[in-house]
Amino acid sequence: MRAFSEIEALAIQHHGSREAVEEKLTRPITGDELRAIPDDRWLSGMTQAVFSAGFVWKVIQAKWDGFEAAFEGFDPGKVALYSDDDIARLVSDERIVRNGQKITATVKNAQFVQEIASEHGGFGAFLADWPATDQTGLLEVFAKRGSRLGGSTGQYFLRFSGWDAFIASGDVVKALIREGVIDKAPTGKAAMKKVQDAFNQWTEESGRCQSEISRILALSVG
Predict the structure, then answer these.
(1) Three-state SS for 207?
(2) Residue 76: count of CB within 10 angstroms of its CB
(3) Is the CB of residue 72 less than 8 Å from the CB of residue 78?
(4) Which residue, among 117, 115, 129, has the nearest Cα to 31 in the 3D structure?
(5) What single-letter DSSP state applies at residue 10?
(6) What pLDDT is stored for residue 106 in this prediction?
(7) Is CB count within 10 Å lower at the N or C end of the chain?
(8) 3-state secondary structure 104-142
């Protein structure tokens, strides 16, 4: 595993200049900003990530106003109480993508958001207090207590919500394999720990946040 400055130099070489690389980076929002996000927006973001997984992202975006209306603004208190009749109604609702398993997952995730918010004073407060150096631990919480939030779905949800997340995208995985961190796409706990350890080392070395490191790794591939 080489120094991060060398990886950054590869990204600059591929994209022409340091400025060009910097323009492509994704930076997280602050802890205070995370805390200020209401719980319905967290459920909305989760649902968008879940429905987008394995589907065309632009289709979900185009229908999103319909999703917001169908799920009553993603109020966790309302969605958590949805009955089988409500789920059946949504399966027939043409405003959304009518995937019964993902609709059911949304109800379960509403319950998850409620539980976490009750324990921590808000879902945003929970995320604000969780260290970026333990994203793997956070994803384990998502997998155990949420629904369909494991793996890349959880990573994309965190990144797009503004949390300091790395994403094990195809190019990031290629870079991690090149650097000898892993030998294939990370799926188990041991492999994810190696990925987290590498990100933590590069963060300490470079002073960059994990989402920046993630993007630079991807940009270093080409």
Answers:
(1) coil
(2) 22
(3) yes
(4) 129
(5) H
(6) 98
(7) C
(8) HHHHHHHHHHHHHHHHHCCHHHHHHHCCHHHHHHHHHHH
> Sign (positive/negative) of CA torsion 132, 48, 50, 90?
positive
Confidence (pLDDT) at 150: 85
Contacts of 79 (CB under 8 A, 6+ apart): 43, 71, 72, 106, 107, 110
**C-alpha distance across the termini of the chain, in Å:** 18
Low-confidence ranges of the chain (pLDDT < 50): none
Query: Do 159 and 211 contact (CB within 8 A), yes or no?
Result: yes
Spatial separation of the C-alpha atoms in residues 126 and 133, rounded to whole Å = 15
Q: Which two tokens stand for residue 106?
A: 């949304």
Q: So what's the pLDDT on residue 91?
A: 97
pLDDT of residue 107: 98
Residue closest to 131 by CA, chosen among 199, 46, 45: 199
Distance CA 204, CA 120 (A): 28
Placement of tokens 């059911």 in the chain: 104
List pLDDT tens digits, range 126-153: 999 999 999 999 999 999 999 999 889 9
Q: Which residues contact 192 (CB under 8 A, 6 or more apart)?
A: 136, 139, 186
- Asked whether the whole model's pTM tops 0.70, one would answer yes
178, 188, 147: which is closest to 50 by C-alpha?
147
CB within 8 Å of 96: residues ≥ 6 apart: 51, 63, 66, 67, 70, 71, 90, 103
CB 26 within 8 A of CB 211: yes
Render pLDDT for 156-175 as a digit per residue (tens, 0 to 9). 999 999 999 999 999 999 99
